[in-house]
Amino acid sequence: MTTPSIGNSTGKGTFTPRPGAAPLHRQVLAQASMEARLMLRNGEQLLLAVVIPVIVLLAAVKGADRIDLELSGRPIDEFTPGVLALAVMSTSFTSLAIATGFERRYGVIKRLGSSPLPRIGLLAGKVGALLLVQVLQGLVITAVALALGWEPEVSVVGVLLTVVAGTAAFASLGLLVAGALRAEATLAAANLVYLLLMAGGAVVLPSTAYGAFGDVVRWLPSGALGDGMRSALLDGAVDPVGLAVLAGWAVLGAVLTARTFKWE
Q1: pLDDT at residue 7 greater than cutoff 60
Q2: Cα separation of 154 and 230, whole Å?
Q3: Are 206 and 225 in contact (CB under 8 A)?
Q4: Rounded mean pLDDT, 45-64
């Protein structure tokens, strides 16, 4: 009878276990992939991310002629950048705040704190998931807009900078709400703020459409995000004022979140 060999001549076995954490980039990628799948499997999150922006686009384009809305160009060219900005806001703020609020309630974040994934890795995973979902949103909304005859004047740099700055600003504000309020209060507050900004925050309509109030709403993160997307997709230009406003909101939200966020 022979004895099966489980090692080699160096003494290192073929099945020698290697306990320890995976490299940080693999942890972040796994976390981002899981967060994105959970977001897209949730019916409410999918409604906010894709369905509502597409409905807003169709309703705005079809209704612009009936209400005789004064626009500088064709409705599809005017509204599509704003709807893309709305999609960024819905994912980065409302979806992130609701998901994080309920993660706190069910102790998910507390348990992740005992895993090898560090806090910076958890935040990087959430940001990665937002970017993955935003790519899907952009593809769907762009396909619908092109089918309706959209003819954009694109500044790729302007679009990328605006999306990154808008994501940072709204994500920091979303985490601020989720880290300070209870889950039910976060759900109500995030949806209320989303509706208020969609209707009166100059995200879909340009700030110039609000008359004298436009001088105020352009300093809101929603107004800066909407104006930035319109500059990038209507004029093919970068909006430095909008980017500066979004960066300011991102810094303010990050500082307040760092001081108030409760992990459990």
Answers
A1: no
A2: 10
A3: no
A4: 86
Surface-to-core class of residue 142, CB atoms within 10 Å of its CB (0-12 exposed, 13-18 middle, 19+ buried): middle
Structure token digits, residue 73 = 């160009």
Tell me how crowded residue 58 is: count the other CB atoms within 10 A of its CB: 15
Amino acid at the residue 157? V
Measured CA to CA, the distance from residue 91 to residue 48 in angstroms comes to 7
Helix (H) or strand (E) holding 152: none
Dihedral, CA of residue 247, residue 76, residue 78 and residue 190, to nearest 10: -40
User: How many other C-beta atoms can be found within 10 angstroms of the C-beta atom of residue 99?
Assistant: 22
On whether the CB atoms of residues 205 and 223 are closer than 8 A, the answer is no
Band of residue 192 on the pLDDT scale cut at 50, 70, 90: very high
Could you tell me what percentage of the chain is helix, strand and coil, using 3-state DSSP and rounding each to the nearest 5? 75, 0, 25
**Which residues 6+ apart lie within 8 Å of 39 measured at CB?**
45, 46, 49, 91, 95, 99, 129, 133
What is the per-residue pLDDT for 83? Answer: 94
Number of neighbouring beta carbons within 10 Å of residue 59: 11
Structure-token match 């994934």, residue found: 117
Quote the tokens at residue 220: 């809101």
Instruction: Give the DSSP per-residue string, 72-89.
Output: SS-HHHHHHHHHHHHHHH
Sequence-distant (6+) residues with CB within 8 A of 74 are 149, 151
The residue count for the chain = 264
Long-range pairs, 207-213, Cβ under 8 A, ≥24: 209/69, 209/70
